[in-house]
Amino acid sequence: MSSLGDRLAAAAARGGKPDASGKHASGEAPPVKDELARAEGGNTPGKRAATAAAAAEEAGSGKRAAWRKAADRIEEIKSSVHTELLKQLGPQLYDANVDQQELEGKVKTVLADVLATQDRPLSGADRARVTQEISDDILGYGPIEPYLRDDDVSEVMVNGHDNIFLEQHGRLVKVETTFADEAHLRRTIEKIVTRIGRRVDESSPMVDARLPDGSRVNAIVPPLSLDGSALTIRKFATDPFTADDLVRFGTMSQRTADFLEACVKARLNIIVSGSTGAGKTTTLNVLSSFIPNDERIVTIEDAAELQLKQDHVVRLESRPPNIEGKGEVTIRDLVKNSLRMRPDRIVVGEVRDSSALDMLQAMNTGHDGSICTLHSNGPRDTLARLETMVLMAGMDLPVRAIREQVSSAVDVIVHQTRFKDGTRHISHVTEIDRMEGDIITLQDIFIYDNSAGYDSEGRRLGRLVSTGLRPKFLEKMADANVRVDPMLFAMDGN
User: Fold this and answer.
1) Is 86 within 8 Å of 94 (Cβ atoms)?
2) In whole angstroms, what is the distance from residue 227 CA to residue 50 CA?
3) Residues 380, 383, 388, 389: is their CA dihedral positive or negative?
4) Does residue 318 lie within any of the structural domains?
5) What distance in Å separates the CA atoms of residue 191 and residue 93, rounded to the nearest whole number?
6) d(CA 375, CA 284)
7) Residues contacting residue 297 through CB under 8 Å, at least 6 positions apart
8) Which terminus of the chain has a lower count of CB atoms within 10 Å, N or C?
9) What is the pLDDT of residues 403-439, one digit of tens each?
10) Which residues pair with 233 in a beta bridge?
């Protein structure tokens, strides 16, 4: 084999001397560097970088493989421990009559015994993790249990077993947590509905339920849900918000709070309207808290959420049909029945069907001070929806007659809006005046002013301000011995 010097000399003889452009007479680039590169085994800077990158990728792959192996081992242990728990405790885990604290003690005892018998030892951190996750799965609701305990989370949305979103501070956030598979998610849904005597399967693929703490649950499973089961949980506030809280959050102003408190005490009929998630139930709960303690209150809801602190409260909850399609009790049935219960106030969680007619009848027949919520996009739209729902009762009433009923029954519309930045604000406090021709006239008392625009983070800088107009029902309030400071309606502040 020739030496490196001989090969370089031969290359120079073949290529000749380079010209001014740096190329040889043959027109080819000088081969010297190429010869040197080949002589050094191709160890160029580019190749060294590529080699280093490949080594780093190989190391990363090794770490990922090790992490997956450890995760698979944890999942295997969890599965075996879970199976053993089911064998030892059996149906006690899903018995609604078993005391929760007693069940929790049994589960933790059995869990400790089963983990102690594992032939493969666990580190302290892994043992704590397995214990917590299995406890959440057995005693709670699996991977979403930590979010149900988190006070900053207001809603949990599961879109299939591997796609979970939360609502935090009014904004949607996706989390990395997942259910193990579709079967795991279905077990969690069945645990929720079984405890309240409901079922969910292919023949009954939709269910509304509530957790023991009052949180609202909606579940829908295949074949209606195409990408796996969907579970939505709107959390129940263990400590209900007060009017001071809503003022502090900016949902309403102090003047508005004082005015609405006076309206409730004066037994005006109020409708709280807004879109889904706008905070209508929270505002309804605050308004209901203004009801005097010496009155009999009947609350009617699909899922009991209201938390009234008064002494004399009767809580009614609607019931869906059973497996045979019988036994349904609707909101309308409960509103009718409540009229025979000698109520001073009727509070309806949500009017969404023909119960609107019975609610108007109640407001027009001496049950002043009633409050309800209704889905709509604005005060005027609230009246349109109310008319539509009255027509759903099947009564062939002329529209003018319905509008006269509405104008005489309802005094105030409190409309709430959830803005793009996630904040919730009362955007209108509107008086329902009288009929002019075939049209109900409305008058805004307070309205949300967004002329200040947005801050640097996209949050609204607006506020709820007075329009300067005084409501015409002030005389009605005075007759109820409730007087309002005229300065509430001044335009020079909020």
Assistant:
1) no
2) 42
3) positive
4) yes
5) 9
6) 13
7) 288, 291, 308, 310, 312, 313, 314, 343, 344, 345, 347
8) N
9) 999 999 999 999 999 888 888 999 999 999 888 888 9
10) 156, 217
Which amino acid type is present at position 187? R
Residue type, 83: T
Structure tokens at 421: 């930045």
List, in sequence order, the alpha helices (H) in 367-417.
379-391, 399-409
Contacts 24+ apart (CB under 8 A), 21-29: none
- Encoded tokens for 197: 């005597």
Q: Any idea what the CATH number is for the domain that residue 193 is in?
A: 3.30.450.370
pTM of the model: 0.72
Question: Can you tell me the distance from the alpha carbon of 213 to that of 83, in angstroms, rounded to the nearest whole number?
Answer: 28
The structure tokens listed for 262 are 């006076």
Q: Is 464 helix (H, G, I), strand (E, B) or coil?
A: strand
Mean pLDDT check: name the lowest of 103-107, 151-155, 167-171, 367-371: 103-107
Q: What's the domain range around 162?
A: 142-236
Percentage, residues of the chain above pLDDT 90: 36
Averaged pLDDT, 316-330: 82
pLDDT at 457 over 80: no
Would you tell me the crossing angle of helices 254-265 and 280-288 to the nearest 10 degrees? 60
Domain termination residue (choose one: 97, 121, 139) = 139
d(CA 368, CA 385): 21
Per-residue DSSP letter, 434:
E
Q: Which two tokens stand for residue 18?
A: 């380079």
Same domain, 340 and 259: yes
Q: Which of 37-51, 107-121, 387-401 has the highest mean pLDDT?
A: 387-401
- Give the whole-angstrom CA distance, residue 331 versus residue 194: 23
